[in-house]
Amino acid sequence: MRQLGLFASAAQPTVLIGDRGDVRYIPGFLAADAARELIAELRCSTTWRADSRMMYGRRVLVPRETAARGEGCAQEWSPLLLATRGALEAYLGTAFDYVFINRYRDGNDSVAWHNDDDAEADPRRTIASLSLGATRTFELRPLRASGLNYKKIAVELADGDLVVMRGETQLNYEHRVPKEPRIAGERINLTFRQHRPPEEAERR
Question: pLDDT tens track of the chain, all 204 residues?
Fold first, then answer.
């Protein structure tokens, strides 16, 4: 496997959350040329799924497309996904066995407030969230049950930016990508994870 010039710079992580959670933002983790190659490969090799769920007594489409790739998934790793996983594992000292992918086709696609804690996983495991394509707003806030009294945190995630969530983050905080109708471009978000996904997973 050829090695990519994955790191665009030696940017220091910015700590977004450090109290009863650990969230760090690393701008430009993936170099621009590597990001372009990866998003092109994903567009060509990924089979996307359009999910739906019941809301207020009727079934509605989830406003984005999703896919899962890696061990235990119907779709295997692609060459560039493997190279990216290797770079993340070396950087974080953490192994990942699959990646859950969200495709936001434009600013009308979004994901509501949620935390990444399914019943079959330890919510304290590391999640590495890599953004490709259009810049979108990523927001974090404490869960009401946490008792934390902090304001919402927002960061603009650009092509190649990385967010890492560890520790008790999923127990005390939730996050979302809100609608931004003015944005016409596509964003693909990859969340590298440490456990196999349940087949029925709909929202990550």
Answer: 344 556 655 578 999 999 999 999 999 999 999 999 999 999 999 999 988 666 667 767 789 999 999 988 999 999 999 999 999 999 999 999 999 999 999 999 999 999 986 545 677 789 999 999 999 999 999 999 999 988 899 999 999 999 999 999 999 999 999 999 999 999 999 999 987 554 434 344
8 A C-beta contact, residue 13 and residue 141: no
Domains, the chain, ordered by start:
14-193 (2.60.120.590)
User: Could you tell me the pTM of the whole model?
Assistant: 0.89
Tell me how crowded residue 200 is: count the other CB atoms within 10 A of its CB: 7
Round to whole Å and give the CA distance between 131 and 187.
Answer: 7
